[in-house]
Each structure stands twice: as structure tokens, then as C-alpha cells.
Amino acid sequence: MLPQPEQRGRIPPIHQGIAQNGARVFRSYSRFGRDSGVNLDTDLRRLKFTPFLGIRVSVVGWLCFTALLVTAAHQHSPRNELPDTTADRVTGVGWWPTKSPASTKVYVGSDACVDCHSTIDSAQSESEMAKAAFRLSGGAAGQPAPGDFKSGSYTYRFISNNALPGYSLEVSSNGQSNSYPISWTMGLGAHGQTYLLDGNGGMYESQASSFTFIHRVGLSPGHKPLEEGSVENALGIPLKSGDALRCFACHTTASSANSTLNTADAVPGVHCEACHGPGMDHVKAAIAGQKVQARQAIFNPASLTPTSSIDFCGACHRTTMDVILNEPEPGAFTIRFQPYRLEESRCWQTTKDARLACTQCHNPHAPMVRDAHFYDQKCLSCHSLRKDAKHVVSSGAWTVTPKICPKATANCASCHMPKSYVPEMNSTFVDHFIRIVRPGAPVPN
Ligand code: HEC
Ligand code: HEC
Ligand code: HEC
Ligand code: HEC
Ligand code: HEC
Ligand code: HEC
Ligand code: HEC
User: Fold this and answer.
1) 261-298 pLDDT tens trace
2) Ligand 6, atom 41: nearest CA belongs to which residue?
3) Among residues 125, 250, 286, 302, which one has the fewest Cβ atoms lying within 10 Å of its Cβ?
């Protein structure tokens, strides 16, 4: 059975200091007040304090107690929750995306969900995420980009090899050439596709990728151009087992058990169980009509706090802590990591409100909406259009009046979430760092 979020019962390390301190102070106080059976008021009187002093002591006592309760509650409030690393989340109790279960037998496949969740299923299978990987070659472009790509003394191109299904990457240099067949295509091709090659008894991440925007072959993101040399090993970087495991965990479903990759069983793309966890126990209970057990046996992200909800999508889109801890020098390429960018903006910093969770703007069960007007309503759930409006946005602990735009009343995202160029992807990405963009100002890291 997969425990629900609130049963996950673990305190992420970063919160530990705060949570433990708060809990320790709170516990010691309540032990004095309750556990020892002492009644503050009467016991003080019994100690023959003057009534005046007694009242004063108890009033001060209650004030301190209330302050501590408020502090403790504040420290545990969603507003003070800090983002966490995905590594910490997946080692915790219960399900989290990219986690490797003990066995792949607990996966039942999305087809098994159709019977009872048919509307969700038909929309989800059309989403970009459901098409995040392909066996051999495939995707938006269908086949690798045409043409040559020159890097140092090497020339790369994708060739159709009649003896093998699909395509191969070929490299040639100084009259020598070598090729490895594509076994997997990673990415639908919204911006590009990188290939996994079979060669030398192992898996390689291709040195060349297809880029949709320029419709050409180019150097794969994160790869270094090679100097002159023999064509051996010029086709790509051997994929270390940990990197392969993570690559498949983000782009496919049910790809591993016990942290051991099983590409044969991997289902290309992000499907139901990649986000909700293995579904076998849920389906069994649902068929038996046990609704409570059914609900307990599947992870429902709807009950997550705003920060955790963003971390949930960040399991693949990278959380703020993933970026800060794993990227020594965050640069413009962090635009690809939406949780990090979004959490930099004042909208989020001031509120940490559910109205800014990824799921407010994106339905994980459907293709992404590509119409700026659609997102206006999301901004206007907090911001007002009217200069005379006393539009107070509050969520329990906080109250704030967000400012009104002097420039426009629609298409908010087009100016405040501008597209920025990411060189290694040869493409532009929507920047989730919501901000005032001044002409000519550099893109913040
Ligand atoms: C036999 C019918 C059935 C099948 C098959 C089924 N579900 Fe469900 N599912 C249910 C029922 C019933 C509920 C509870 C709905 C309720 O009480 O509102 C539910 C609830 C859920 C929830 C929300 C849980 C919660 O806490 O409210 C999720 C998420 C979910 N299902 C995912 C899946 C996934 C993923 C699959 C495929 C692996 C699947 N379901 C297959 C019947 C089914
Ligand atoms: C298991 C990994 C995983 C999780 C969890 C995940 N995503 Fe994704 N998502 C991806 C991958 C991989 C892609 C890239 C698809 C492609 O273009 O190949 C993607 C693409 C997207 C896109 C479409 C981008 C485009 O350019 O078309 C949106 C929107 C999106 N994700 C939103 C979300 C939201 C919201 C959540 C949280 C509810 C989430 N994702 C959780 C892996 C994941
Ligand atoms: C931590 C999760 C994660 C890992 C690991 C990961 N990806 Fe991705 N990948 C994503 C997400 C999320 C996106 C969508 C956002 C974006 O385009 O940056 C994406 C996008 C891509 C795209 C662009 C897709 C498009 O439609 O334009 C390619 C290509 C890609 N990944 C290849 C790879 C390859 C190859 C590996 C492993 C060798 C890998 N990724 C590892 C999460 C991951
Ligand atoms: C990219 C991650 C992702 C994928 C893939 C995904 N879901 Fe979900 N699902 C979510 C999130 C996030 C929520 C919570 C949405 C919210 O906050 O309202 C959710 C909620 C649900 C719920 C509960 C709805 C409710 O109102 O509580 C059901 C049922 C469900 N999903 C079924 C499915 C099924 C069936 C599939 C496959 C066809 C699927 N999901 C694929 C992320 C995902
Ligand atoms: C959860 C509520 C909320 C949502 C949703 C929201 N904002 Fe904000 N936004 C705020 C708050 C609060 C501030 C800070 C106001 C202040 O300091 O006076 C702010 C500040 C801003 C600023 C000024 C930033 C700066 O650095 O000075 C801009 C621009 C902005 N928001 C635009 C948007 C746009 C565009 C959207 C939709 C894409 C949006 N906001 C969605 C609450 C929100
Ligand atoms: C044509 C581009 C454009 C569009 C569209 C646009 N804005 Fe702005 N917005 C700006 C600029 C430029 C500023 C900075 C104005 C200044 O300080 O001179 C700004 C300022 C703001 C501010 C900060 C105001 C302050 O007093 O600090 C907020 C909040 C804001 N916009 C929200 C929105 C919302 C919400 C929408 C959609 C309804 C929107 N904007 C649409 C360009 C735009
Ligand atoms: C306030 C609304 C809003 C929120 C919150 C939001 N997004 Fe977006 N997102 C957008 C808009 C607008 C686009 C651009 C859509 C288009 O192409 O027209 C976008 C695009 C994307 C893309 C595609 C980027 C590209 O250029 O290829 C991904 C992936 C994505 N969002 C993921 C996320 C994730 C993950 C989160 C949570 C951290 C998130 N979004 C939160 C509004 C939002």
C-alpha cells in the first residue's frame, strides 16, 4: 500500500532544524501545561502568590504560551515550507515521481485505468508528457533532422540503415567512419530530440541531436565538442547506470525496480503510474468495491501543499533545491527548470499560494494550452485590472494588495513571462520567473 502524502511522515532535512526546534519548544511547554497535570493558575495560587501577582504571572504565561503556539503553527504553516531536493523526496516513505519500486509487477499500465477514469485517460494520452520518449526513432518530427553537423574534424549525420530498423548516427573523420543504431529517442521534439545509441555492448547518449526550431542536427545539450581523433567513441557519451536510470525515470514509465533499469519493460512517455505510483493495489481494491482502500493505495497529488505540489512536478522539471545544489553556477539555462524560475518571482515569494502551483496553469492530464489569454485569468485571480479596486489577496496567514499593471489588461504572460533563448537547446523557452522585464536588461539567473 502506498501511504498518502500526509502519512508519508518524514521531515525533509532542510525543515528539520525549524520543525524540530518548534516541536521541541512546543512539547516542553505543553508537558508543563498538560502532561504533568499542573494547572498553571491554581498551582500558582496554592504557592501563596498574591492574587495580583498570580494573575499577572498567569497572564504573562498565557501570552507566552499563545505566542509559542502561534510561532509553532507559523513554523509549520505552508508559507514557511521550503522546497526540497528530489533525492530526499524519493528516499522518503511513500510514492514520489521517479522513485523506483521494489518490483515492476506492481505496475498495471494506463490501459487498466481507462475502465474507471476514461475521460482523464483519453486527454492524458494526447499530452506532450505522454509522448516524451519513443523506441527507435519517432515523435513530432518522425525522423531525425536532415543534413550534416560538423564538429572539429568530425562530421555527423543520421542515416537510414537498411539492415536495421529505424536510423543510425554516423560519424566520419579523415576517411574513417563508424555508426551506432538509435535504440531510443528522448523528447517529443517540442524543442529537440536526443538519442540513445546501442554500441559496444552499452548505451550511449548521442553526440548529435535534432533541433526542431532550426530543423538541423547539432551538438547535444551538455556535450563538449571533441578535438581531432579516431572515430571510436566519438558517437556519444557512454551512459553511466545512474544517468540512464534517471533519464528513463523522467521520460518513461515503469522503467525500473530496485534502482535497476529495465529498458525492455519501460513504457515510453510519462503515463498515469509515473505520477500516481504503481496501480495494482488500487485497481484490486477498486474492483472489489473498497473505496477507502482504493484511495489509500494510490498517490493523489491534489492534497499536497503549494510548495510540495511544485516539488512534485519538479521531480522531473527540477525543484529549486535540485537546481541550487546540483548546478554550481545557475545560468540562463535554468529557464528550462520552471519550479526554480517560478519560485524566484515576487508573486510566489510574497504569497507561496496555491494559485501559483503548476497545476493551476497546467492540467497534467491534457496537452499544454498555447493561448496567452487562457493564462490571464490565473494572474487575475490575484491581480486586479481596476485602479480603484481594493483587491486584497489573502490566504489565511497573509494579506497583500498586489499592484496593478499600468501597461495592459490582457496577455499578461507575453510580457511578464517572456520567451528567452537557451543556446544549448537552439530554442526559446517561456521564462516562469514572473517579473517586470525592462528593455535590454539581461535575463536574470
Ligand atoms: C475498477 C475501477 C478503477 C480502476 C481500474 C482505477 N481506478 Fe482510480 N479510482 C477508482 C475509484 C472508485 C476511486 C475513488 C473515487 C472517489 O472515491 O471519489 C479512484 C480514485 C483514484 C485517484 C484519487 C485518489 C484519491 O485519493 O482520491 C487516483 C489518483 C486514481 N484513482 C488513479 C488511478 C490510476 C493511475 C489507475 C490505473 C493504474 C486507476 N486509478 C485505476 C476506481 C478505479
Ligand atoms: C515523471 C516525470 C514528469 C513529471 C512528474 C512531470 N513532468 Fe511535465 N514533462 C516531463 C517531460 C519528460 C516533458 C517533456 C515532454 C517532451 O516534450 O518530450 C514534460 C513536459 C511538460 C509540459 C509541456 C511542455 C511543452 O513544451 O510542450 C508541461 C506543461 C508539463 N510538463 C507540466 C507538468 C506539470 C504541471 C507537472 C506536475 C503536475 C509535471 N509536468 C510533472 C516529465 C514530467
Ligand atoms: C530529472 C528528470 C529528467 C532527466 C534525468 C532527463 N530529462 Fe529530458 N526532460 C525533462 C523535462 C521535464 C523536459 C521538458 C522541459 C524541457 O524541455 O527542458 C525534458 C526535455 C528533454 C528534451 C527536449 C524535448 C522536447 O520536446 O523538446 C530532450 C531532447 C531530453 N529531455 C532528453 C533527455 C535525455 C537524452 C536524457 C537522459 C540521457 C534526459 N533528457 C534526462 C526531464 C528529464
Ligand atoms: C504528470 C503527472 C500526472 C500524470 C501523468 C497523471 N496524473 Fe493524475 N493527477 C496529477 C496531479 C498533479 C493531480 C492533482 C491535480 C490537482 O491538484 O487538482 C492528479 C489527480 C488525479 C486524480 C484525482 C482527481 C481529483 O479530483 O482528486 C485522478 C483520478 C487521476 N489523477 C488519474 C490519472 C490517470 C487515470 C492518469 C493516466 C491516464 C493520470 N492521472 C496521469 C498528475 C498526473
Ligand atoms: C497568488 C497570487 C498571485 C498570482 C497568481 C500572480 N501574482 Fe503577480 N504578484 C503577487 C504579489 C503578492 C506580488 C507582490 C506585490 C507587491 O509587492 O506589491 C506580485 C507581483 C507581481 C509583479 C511585480 C514584480 C516585481 O518584481 O515588482 C508582476 C509584474 C506580476 N506580479 C505579474 C503577474 C502575472 C503576469 C501573473 C500571471 C502570470 C501573476 N503576477 C500571478 C501575487 C500574484
Ligand atoms: C505589453 C506588455 C505588458 C502586458 C501585456 C502586461 N504588462 Fe504588466 N507591466 C508591463 C510593464 C512594462 C510594467 C512596468 C511599468 C513601470 O514600472 O513602468 C508592468 C508592471 C506590472 C505590475 C507591477 C506594477 C507596479 O506598480 O509595480 C504588475 C503587477 C503587472 N504589470 C501585472 C500585469 C498583469 C496581471 C497583466 C495582465 C492582465 C499585465 N501586467 C500585462 C508590461 C505589460
Ligand atoms: C501563472 C501560470 C503558470 C504557472 C503557475 C506555471 N506555468 Fe508553465 N507555462 C505558463 C505559460 C503561459 C506557458 C507558455 C504557454 C504557451 O506556449 O503559450 C507555460 C509553459 C510551460 C512549459 C513549456 C515551456 C516551453 O517554453 O517549452 C512547461 C514545461 C511548463 N510551463 C511547466 C510548468 C511547471 C513545471 C510549473 C510549476 C513550477 C509551471 N509551468 C507553472 C504558465 C504557467
Assistant:
1) 999 999 999 999 999 999 999 999 999 999 999 999 99
2) 412
3) 302
- Residues 166, 159: Cα–Cα separation, whole Å: 9
pLDDT level of residue 69 (50, 70, 90 thresholds): very low
Do the strands 208-211 and 192-199 form a parallel or antiparallel pair, or are they unpaired? antiparallel
Separation CA 16–CA 12 (nearest Å)? 6
Question: CB under 6 Å to ligand 1: residues?
Answer: 108, 112-113, 115-117, 272-273, 276, 279, 282-283, 286-287, 291, 294-295, 298, 300
* Residue 198 amino acid letter: D
- Beta strands of 270-382 (E only): which ranges? none
Residue 227 has a pLDDT of: 83
CA dist., res. 275 & res. 185, Å (int): 21
Atom 37 of ligand 3, nearest CA residue: 247
What is the pairing mode between strands 176-186 and 393-395?
A: unpaired
Using CA atoms, how far apart are residues 384 and 390, in angstroms rounded to an integer? Answer: 9
3-state secondary structure of 133: strand
Phi, psi of 360 (to 5 degrees): -70, -35
Mutate to test the pocket of ligand 2, among 99, 128, 341 (most ligand atoms within 8 A of CB): 128
Q: What is the pLDDT of residue 118?
A: 92
Closest CA relative to residue 275, chosen from 159, 358, 152, 391: 358
